[in-house]
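Case study 2.
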Amino acid sequence: MAKPKHKPGFPTRQQILDFIASSDTPAGKREIARAFGLTAQEKIALKALLKDMADEGLIDSAPGRAFHKMGGLPKVTVLRIADVDDGGNVWAVPERWEAEGVPVPRLRVRERSKRSALGVGDRILARTEEAGKGWIAHPMKHLAKGEELMLGVLRREGDRLWLEGVEKRERRQYQVSDAGDAEPGDLVLAEKAGRPPRITVRVTERLGDPFAPRSFSLIAIHEHDIPDRFADEALEEAERVAKQPLGDGREDLTELPIVAIDPADARDHDDAVWAAPDDDPKNPDGWKAVVAIADVSFYVRPGSALDREARRRGNSVYFPDRVVPMLPEILSAEVCSLKTGEDRAALACHLQIAKDGTLKSWRFTRAVVRIAANIAYEDAQAAIDARASPQRKLGSQEALATAARDPSFRWDDALVEGALVPLWSCWRALATARDKREPLDLDLPERRVVLDEMGRILSVAPRERLDAHRLIEDYMIAANVAAAKALEAKKAPVMYRVHEPPAREKLVALKDYLETWGVKFALGQVIQPKTFNHILDKIGDVDFRPQVMEQVLRSQTQAYYAPGNHGHFGLALGSYAHFTSPIRRYADLIVHRSLVAAYGLGPGGLTDDEAAGMERIGESISRLERRAMEAERDTIDRYVAAFLAEKVGELVETRITGVQNFGIFATVAGIGGDGLLPVRDLGSEYFRYDEAARKLVGEASGDEFAIGQALQLRLAEANPVSGALRFELPEGRYAASPGKKPERVLKRRGRPPNIRHQGRRR
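Prediction:
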């Protein structure tokens, strides 16, 4: 019998991870037991420990029952050839990859012989090797053919069919060897095959019309690899836990007129609010409030199938026509969703708010709530406006018509006076504290796509910004601050929402940009959120204000989740954690579990292993959040392009948002569609690219294309499949500097212009 490689004794989790990482050969249960010299009884305990570690996402199993660290690769595994680039490099991906939130690794394949050249779709058994920040694969054996699927649209050119990928970064088109029953114009899934220089595709599934309702979100789901099907185990568990009673010992808040104020088209309802004047003599003219949040941690326990699925998704993803939820629908839209008249499990944040809007105290309880009403933002605002205006009575036809969207909403004085009016009064105190704090105030409009019942586009327009939106935001921010501070008081783990101050290089770029508008911005000052607010106050209500706000937004860092507190710059807060949306964000579920454990609120608290892995969890859910944002943004772009497709050939009002040496980026006014005006379409004049000022300057005329400039352009192309727009300069139109009266006319006829690049001064 081989001697153990480690000191005999039952290993810890970390020792197992270290052994797996350092082993030269695949490490299964037998190898781990031999390495630590375990007895027969200890081997039984080892099997249970390895299962726990797999459930917790620490390790994964490879074929043959060998283990590897989650997020890493097995020593030997099956790979699928995904691409062969123009340089002849062969790239492969694991055939099986279930690491939560970890991008699928691409391995460069080292072929032993050119005679055994690999093609896209080939499967190999390979030995893997981590090299620097990448991976190398050493083929051991060719396996039966597999699939590498690509999403695209078929188009005919002559007597041949070609597949055009839906991804903007997919530049190549592939000849179709077998289209099956698909026809030109269809959206399809296709399998790549062959070897360079002849890689072809075979259609494996016809998805139909790419312009049909729901296609745009399907494209994003596929393009960003968003899991949209729950494992059977998770669905079965959701059905089971949904039937469990709410549990004993909950605080009864069913008599409070708590209301949930959400978008009219909300798919789930995480939060509800209530406020009333405080009767505590130590808080004169102050307020007491309750922010009740769905108690998801009661249903989704650490290490469960539901938990693994939620962590793998990280968050819900919202599209105009559907939602890809983090939790199965029976939980996200039913049992956990706070609905009118239904008793629901909640984690309640009790706040004591001073007259000036500062938080005096807070406490957290597990409660049962019964929502008095689910109200749309517009309806809540209409109620307050009707009450404030003598001309608009509460029972007027206009007010009733507004409320009719929600038949369950009883538009009566008791609800308005007992629930909405106190909420608004308390909010004015919170708003006072917010104004004193001076967080970053960028009122950039959110695009809203409105669809009919068939999924067809009715309109694309900025979403109206109401006081009702700000009210809910401020209550949620107060609860998030209270959650972070409550955990800090117990020295418990916190999953902070971190937003660090802008990096210097971004501030330098902003300074250069502001100078093009004649706005001074000193880099030597201490940068605070109000610094940017003062810039906006200085420029006032000018045409280019939205462009300056957009540029200020681009100068900010990306917010992320982490257990280390670095503050929230944008909100001007020292401690901030997401607590209010556990149905749709895994970060909030972690905060709930930590509160449950720290304050002894019952089952479902944060485990020691979760606490130890907070850094890793934070990195994972931050990546998944960025993935969701990109998918949502890309889908909106596709809907906008589809909406504008009927206007191809027409003149549209635009504003320049970016200038490069190859062309001008412009946004359609009002709806936000972004497109390119290629420099080749500017005419025959020579243009010089001024990088420092970020503008194109005509050498003969002095005419300029600069960021912020309003232009009327012709929409030349709108591609709903990729979301891309292309513009042309209309005949006889001009380009002028911001605020400069045009003096010359640019012509588009003739050869493309030459561009001379003027670099930034060092």
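The chain has six domains: 13-69, 76-143, 149-210, 232-497+564-633, 501-556, 648-758.
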